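Shipment paperwork, digital attachment
Item: protein structure file
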Amino acid sequence: MPAVLALLAAASFGVADFLGGFASRRAPAVPVTVVSNLSGGAVAVALWLLFGGTWSAQAVILGLVGGLAGLVGLVLLYDALASGRFQIVSPVSAVTGAAVPVIAGIVFGDRPELLAVLGLLLTPPAIWLLASGGEEDEHGNAGGISARLVAQSFLAGAGFGVFFVFLDQTPDGAGAVPLIAARVASLAALVVISALRRTGLPARPAIGFAAGAGAVDMTANGFFLWATREGDLSVIGALTSLYPAGTVILAWLVLGERLSRPQRAGVAAALAAAVMLSV
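Attachment content:
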């Protein structure tokens, strides 16, 4: 059962990334993030009602700060996914998001397992392969991508990684409380940003995709929390780290995205690195 829940979380995260990126191709990233945060916040409250959780100053403060880091990651992710290179952006952000907690643990004195070290070493060549590929060939395989897109994907993953680090520091029994606090912080920041930039809600075609992205993303968090209650965190984390596979498959089936051979190797290496970093 825990493995099934972890795979459901992975599938949900993959679908959420795809929906968010699809919405960002039709509207700017900030309005899309506003809608996704609103729908995600509603689901977070539902998760709290379902799973419970103890309210404490530590849980709320860590959730608030982590939520701001996650917001930066989400805006950058949606903006990067707006380029249409789902099969590149999702693996790069995923492997970076998995690497940041490991690096933070090392800084704070942890001694990572050998697999985690190997995952860290595999990360740079995986990103290099994903960013390579040369010109499009006669089979329609995609060429290389810009340094800006790689940097955005990398920084998006770093934002998510910092969010995970703060969540990890929340008290036992906090449940969904940090998730609610994170949504409150991100929505407050988005209101300020939207007011300063005078941006409204996204166009109608993008609203449904954005709302779906937020709801599915928070549902994935629910599956993840449920799985951690039932099984071993290392196994659950490794299985959940497969989520970019869902985004890659959807981009291939729905959008017809293609990758060059080096980039396909990069996707495989990034998925392997994410799993190793989560064990």
